[in-house]
Amino acid sequence: MKSYIEERAMEIAKYIIDNNTTVRQAAKHFGISKSTVHKDCTERLAQVSPALAAEVRKVLDVNKSERHIRGGMATKEKYAHQHG
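The structure assignment produced for this chain is given below.
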């Protein structure tokens, strides 16, 4: 694996852990796709730093378990702003 990919994976992981962000938020912050963020954090990072991979996995698992709640909140917000 190229060193810049390893560095990117570590940087993304640290960002997600420090800011408790979602994959989507991290992708937007780094200007890359959600797929790349996910692959970096789940596959590539495990090869480079298993300990960091385990930490980021915890954050991603929490986000996944709360995903349906955030979606419901977004829908509620959307309809609250509609008139008619």
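Interim note for the steering committee: The two ends are 55 Å apart (CA to CA). The chain is about 85% helix and 0% strand.
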